[in-house]
């Protein structure tokens, strides 16, 4: 037993040493609970008894002072503006003589006292005691370390027994101060100047405490700082933005306990570009004219669509339509971009006009206006329309041979074209001496007192009467072209125009003829300015105008030309004195001139001149010239009397031929028809005027022997108007000296020869018959028969037609081969000669005397109704014969007979 007790005592001593070592490791602010025990084991070995003892010490530590609600790092987070309650928990058993104190960051060395901001109080609970610090409306300035201290007062010294600390972080809510949800950024593709922003900032400034972690996302991907993007506290910077950067950006801000998400719609705009103008649109080309409206145009492009605004350099910040809404009218559409100036004024509206193209994008960055505005300028100088300043030197009188100068003064803006032009002359005068007339000189001077006044001078030396004219002053600038007449009148004595060598039928002749009750004009002409006054005299006595119906005076002036007529109307009572010598006098301020005219009584014309004649079997053609002596009055017609030898001896006539009976110029062509073949005729030809018929010219002719009729000339119609019928017409031919007894008409269908070189329908082409000849002899009961109506024709068919006249000697084409085309002379002969072409007039007096042998015509294509019912022609005809017998014998009977 003794040894065992000794062992136990040693074990106790050893356990005390171990407990001391354990207690030295316990901290100041901890309470330790230690449980110790000894467990012994005995064993025997080789007769020796061994004891093994194990000392078991258990330690459990607990804090007696701590701040409730902190994390593992002793931190507490609180939102700004909220009330903060810090709870200091004491888990010990003894509180007697122990003091607890709170310290805050703003007063780290002075214990907290209850006031309006802070308050401290106790809360008792089972097994613990809480010392609470309440801070009202906490702010970011209240962030820092808060300390709860436990101890006792030892005189002037405080003995600290335990301490608990907490790091308080005052959080501010995640807010944005500059983060518009829609932002515009310029595109590099729209840049036109070197001052373009190479980088742009998508603004989104986020404020929070503690500073959050910010992430940017675009199109599902997170953006990171690199060559194209850079993130900062101000936002996202994009380098070299393009249209591909347009879209929805997401900003994510994270705090330890809060997360905020912001969406920003980014739109890309291109800088506006003025694509056209500014330019003057009209109505005047490249000019704005005073007192007229004007249109300026400026077109622009960009994204979004820009608007166009107009300004003037004297007030570049005020739009024109606001400056004067009654004068300026603006269409801001960039596709129209017009400025209408209702009434431009000189010189008030002369200025530099500014066209600005603007896109509607909010201002979001520095030098924003450089990217959303493009402008161009146009200098406008209002044009003043040319206006004449009338001067007395515009119209001048000058004596012949002197020098005269006319002046034209025009007020207008430059550039101004000013020149003189002679009226009716297509070429203007050049400045200086004229190359084609060195007598004329033109020069221009500018008024030194008023630069808008332009003086143009024209001087003529050694003037002649031909210089009397209107000289037009032309002024032209961008606004208008105007002209005014200046007049130069060369004054001289009237110069009578001689009338030597004119026939008596000309009213300007010095020898005139008259007849009873017919008015005759005696005329005098002169040139020279001013226009003269005309007077007429007979035997020294002045003739008064329109005193009676015998004399009438008419005067007419045109430029430097003047003319006067004395109209004399003889009658039975005045014939004894009215035929006399008359004197006309022209008088102006420079003198008088006169001319004498002889007025005599007219007589009948003399014998006409027979140039030649052509006689055939039945016709006589005369070629007549005017008589050498007309009797003073013009010939009005020719008369012909004729009588046959061996006849009844009477004269036939007069046959009157007017002067326009000729088909050819110069020589009248007279033709007499209906003569008898082989007969001699005596003829008398005379000329007639208003006085009467003159002395006849007698001659005789012998007609040729009778022959067959001449060829018949068809009035050509190449194409028929109806598919199934056609009317042919002809001119009555020469009868060959014998009466016509009828006509023979032949018709057949033909086709053109395939080897013909002509594509058009022409009678000169060779034709090939495609059917038999169809011969018609129309009933001849009228010597003037000249047409026939064909029916039962086929549509779209070419026909050849030959018409012959018949008399007792034969037909027109007897002895003529009608297979070939040709021409015959209209005048019949015993042996007709066929001519293939008309190439000269040697074989006939006139080319129109040749008549073609036959003609062609074509019927048109048939219509949808087909051929009409045949009533006449070769088709079947229905004849109805109706016989009515007497009633007393039989009843009515009708017989129908059909003839095919």
Describe this structure in words.
The structure is a single chain. By secondary structure, the protein is mainly β. It has seven domains: 2-61; 173-268, Sandwich (Immunoglobulin-like), CATH 2.60.40; 280-380, Immunoglobulins (Immunoglobulin-like); 387-491, Immunoglobulins (Immunoglobulin-like, Sandwich), CATH 2.60.40.10; 496-601, Immunoglobulin-like, CATH 2.60.40; 609-702, Immunoglobulins (Immunoglobulin-like); 713-858, Immunoglobulins (Immunoglobulin-like, Sandwich). The protein is built from four helices and 61 strands. The strands form 15 sheets. Strands 11, 14, 15, 18, 19, 20, 22 and 23 form an eight-stranded mixed β-sheet that branches. Strands 53, 54, 55, 57, 58 and 61 form a six-stranded antiparallel β-sheet that branches. Strands 4, 6, 9, 10 and 13 form a five-stranded mixed β-sheet that branches. Strand 38 (533-538) and strand 39 form a beta hairpin. The protein is elongated and about 215 Å long. The relative contact order is 0.05. Residues 22-28, 191-197, 840-845 and 872-900 have low confidence and may be disordered. One of its GO terms (cellular component) is axon. Pfam families: fn3 (PF00041), I-set (PF07679), Ig_3 (PF13927).
């Amino acid at each position: 037993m003794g040894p065992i007790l000794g062992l136990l005592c040693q074990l106790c001593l050893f356990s005390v040493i171990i407990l001391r070592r354990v207690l030295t490791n316990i901290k100041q602010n901890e309470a330790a609970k230690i449980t110790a025990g000894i467990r012994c084991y005995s064993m025997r070995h080789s007769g020796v008894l061994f004891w093994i003892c194990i000392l078991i010490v258990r330690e459990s530590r607990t804090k007696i002072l701590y701040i409730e609600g902190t994390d593992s790092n002793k931190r507490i987070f609180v939102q700004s503006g909220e009330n903060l309650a810090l709870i200091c928990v004491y888990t010990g058993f003894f509180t007697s003589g122990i003091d607890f104190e709170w310290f805050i960051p703003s007063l780290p060395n002075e214990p907290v006292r209850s006031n309006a901001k802070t308050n401290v109080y106790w809360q008792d609970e089972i097994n613990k005691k809480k010392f609470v610090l309440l801070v009202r409306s906490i702010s970011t300035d209240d962030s820092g370390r808060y300390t709860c201290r436990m101890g006792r007062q030892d005189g002037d010294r405080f003995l600290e027994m335990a301490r608990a600390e907490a790091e308080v972080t005052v959080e501010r809510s995640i807010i944005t101060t500059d983060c518009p949800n829609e932002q515009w950024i310029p595109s590099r593709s729209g840049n036109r100047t070197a001052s373009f922003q190479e980088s742009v900032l998508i603004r989104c400034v986020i404020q929070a405490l503690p500073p959050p972690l910010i992430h940017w996302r675009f199109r599902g991907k997170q953006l990171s700082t690199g060559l194209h993007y850079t993130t900062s506290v101000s936002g996202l910077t994009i380098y070299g933005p393009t249209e591909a950067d347009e879209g929805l950006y997401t900003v994510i801000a994270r705090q330890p306990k809060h997360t905020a998400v912001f969406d920003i719609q980014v739109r890309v705009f291109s800088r506006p570009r003025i694509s056209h103008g500014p330019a003057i649109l009209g109505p005047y080309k490249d000019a704005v004219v005073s007192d007229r409206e004007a249109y300026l145009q400026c077109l622009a492009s960009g994204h979004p669509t820009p608007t166009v605004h107009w300004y003037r350099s004297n007030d570049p910040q005020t739009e024109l339509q606001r400056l004067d809404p009654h004068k300026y009218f603006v269409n801001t559409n960039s596709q129209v971009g017009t400025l209408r100036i209702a009434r431009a004024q000189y010189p008030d509206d002369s200025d530099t006009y500014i066209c600005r193209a603007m896109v509607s994008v909010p201002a979001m960055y520095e030098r924003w206006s450089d990217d959303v505005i493009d402008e161009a300028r146009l200098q406008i100088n209002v044009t003043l329309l040319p206006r004449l300043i009338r001067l007395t030197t515009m119209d001048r009188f000058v004596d012949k041979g002197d020098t005269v100068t006319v002046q034209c003064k025009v007020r207008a803006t430059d550039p101004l074209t000013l020149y003189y032009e002679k009226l009716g002359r297509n070429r203007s005068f050049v400045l200086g001496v004229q190359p084609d007339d060195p007598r004329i000189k033109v020069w221009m001077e500018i008024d030194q007192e008023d630069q808008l006044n332009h003086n143009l001078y024209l001087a003529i030396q050694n003037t002649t009467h031909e210089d009397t004219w209107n000289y037009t002053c032309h002024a032209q600038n961008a606004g208008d072209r105007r002209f005014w007449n200046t007049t130069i009148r060369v004054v001289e004595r009237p110069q009578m125009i001689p009338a030597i060598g004119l026939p008596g039928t000309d009213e300007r002749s010095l020898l005139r003829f008259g007849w009873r009750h017919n008015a005759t004009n005696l005329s005098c002409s002169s040139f020279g300015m001013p226009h003269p006054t005309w007077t007429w005299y007979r035997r020294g006595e002045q003739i008064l105008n329109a005193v009676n119906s015998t004399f009438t005076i008419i005067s007419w002036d045109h430029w430097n030309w003047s003319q006067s007529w004395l109209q004399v109307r003889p009658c039975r009572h005045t014939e004894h004195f009215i035929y006399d010598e008359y004197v006309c006098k022209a008088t102006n301020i420079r003198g008088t001139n006169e001319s004498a005219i002889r007025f005599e009584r007219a007589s009948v014309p003399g014998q006409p001149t027979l140039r030649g004649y052509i006689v055939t079997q039945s016709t006589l053609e005369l070629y007549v010239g005017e008589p050498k002596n007309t009797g003073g009055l013009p010939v009005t017609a020719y008369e012909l009397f004729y009588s046959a030898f061996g006849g009844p001896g009477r004269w036939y006539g007069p046959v009157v031929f007017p002067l326009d009976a000729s088909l050819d110029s110069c020589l009248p062509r007279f033709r007499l028809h209906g003569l008898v073949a082989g007969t001699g005729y005596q003829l008398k030809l005379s000329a007639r005027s208003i006085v009467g018929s003159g002395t006849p010219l007698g001659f005789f002719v012998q007609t040729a022997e009778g022959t067959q009729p001449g060829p018949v000339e068809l009035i050509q119609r190449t194409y028929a108007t109806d598919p199934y019928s056609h009317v042919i017409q002809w001119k009555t031919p020469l009868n060959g000296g014998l009466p016509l007894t009828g006509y023979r008409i032949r018709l057949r269908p033909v086709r053109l020869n395939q080897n013909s070189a002509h594509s058009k329908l022409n009678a000169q082409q060779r034709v090939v018959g495609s059917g038999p000849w169809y011969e018609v002899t129309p009933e001849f009961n009228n010597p003037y028969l000249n047409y026939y109506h064909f029916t039962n024709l086929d549509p779209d068919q070419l026909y050849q037609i030959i018409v012959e006249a018949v008399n007792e000697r034969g037909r027109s084409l007897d002895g003529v081969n009608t297979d070939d085309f040709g021409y015959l002379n209209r005048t019949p002969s015993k042996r007709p000669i066929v001519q293939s072409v008309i190439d000269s007039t040697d074989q006939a007096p006139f080319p129109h005397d040749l008549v073609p042998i036959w003609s062609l015509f074509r019927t048109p294509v048939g219509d949808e109704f087909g051929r009409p019912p045949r009533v006449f022609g070769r088709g079947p005809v229905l004849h109805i014969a109706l016989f009515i017998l007497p009633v007393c014998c039989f009843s009515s009977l009708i017989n129908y007979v059909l003839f095919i």
